[in-house]
Write a structure and sequence with these properties.
The chain is globular. It has a ten-stranded parallel sheet with strand order 3-4-7-10-15-20-23-26-29-32, with helices on both faces. It has a ten-stranded mixed sheet with strand order 5-8-11-16-21-24-27-30-33-34. The chain is built from eight helices and 34 strands. About 15% of the residues lie in helices and about 30% in strands. The N terminus is likely disordered. The longest helix is centred in the middle third of the chain and has 17 residues. The two termini are about 15 Å apart. It binds calcium ion (2 copies). The site of one calcium ion has 6 residues, from loops.
Amino acid sequence: MTAVVVGVALVAVLPGAALAGGNDKNSDRLSWVARSLGRQVLPTNDGWAAAGPGTTGGAAASADQVYVVGSRTELVDALGGDNATNRTNATPKIIYVKGTVNGFDDPDGTRLTCADLADPEYDFDEFLATYDPAVWGRVNPSGPLEDARRRSVTNQTAQTQINVGPNTTIIGLRGATFENLTLMVDSANNVIVRNLLFDDAYDCFPAWSPNDGDAGNWNSQYDLMSVRRSENVWVDHNTFTDGDNPDSAQPVHFGRPLQVHDGALDITHTASLVTVSYNKFDGRDKVMLIGSSNTVGPDVGRLNVTLHHNIFDGSLQRLPRIRFGQVDVYNNHYKLSGDDFEYAVGVGVQGAPYLQNNAFHLAPGIATADLLYDWGGTVVTEQGNWVAEGRRPLRPASLLDAYNAVNEPDLGADAGWTPTLRHGPVLPAVAVPLYTRLTAGAGKLPV
Ligand code: CA
Ligand code: CA
């Protein structure tokens, strides 16, 4: 079975026979559009995920490896049957998601709570009393309560982190939502994830890091989606949000906001060849970390990622933050606001960002000079970006010139590479806001 999508026109060649339906007879009721999109592979040259063998996900799945899932249990079953070992299940498979899959759902049909996942020795009030910097000092928590917190994290990870194996396509049917879970692509090449709303992967047991930043920070374990030690991953037409549990509404402890979220989509631990296209990232603190360590080691030559036609709406930092990788950022729309805005593109150690034809709308109080941040990097290539400050219209602007005018040391203007893996025309920046509004995010594919 093959399907070819040219622009927005769908031209599909499909067999007449219905799919056998995997473990779920619902899959033989899928529309032919859904079936063709489920079999779709990454287009030729569409970003870094097109390098090497390209990205086909589960397109080669046999009929008995096509699933429609509507619960955590069904999702884990489709991924291979055991969440602890599913990351090694390389059988090609296509998984359609119907409705809401919640990470806290128990196989018996009940919904677990943080209290259910907590170690018997863990108590948050006791944790606060014990590790208050005024009592404990500015040193990392240790001892029985911290050990109990870590055991609780292990419990939660087993429950809410859903592990994906190689050669997998996961695609949402209309309205499909992954709620309160982390989709983990670790040591799993050739994965496609499309048309899903990722909502609020909250951490029941955040860590206190007293020496993270000047005043310490609470840190969460969980991204909405993580890509680690994997190649050829295509993340397309999804929406990432914290829904009704935003960072801005968290309580303050030890003078710092309790952070129950980590990244929206973090790409770390030597992952590479990832294309992130047509997604919408809704307002939150941290969005996308590309590389999690400054160590000049296994990440060198890795972490190559393409971001195109995404919307970053109201987020505060890491849009993305880049270490080591050659990262192509083109035709994205940034809508930035908020007193707590930090930066858009973080230029980290040996990072090689290529920023072309992006559009930036900045609320009053945010300046073009605020868009880059130097996390130990040295260079950025940019061209064709347009910025609207305050209520002024979009106009051509240099993020680099604006940054260098008010910062030392200056960043250099040549990241040392030119992207060649692009599919279709690169739009002028001025066309990007309307185009992405019509096309980016979950619910835009005709599934
Ligand atoms: Ca993370
Ligand atoms: Ca300067």
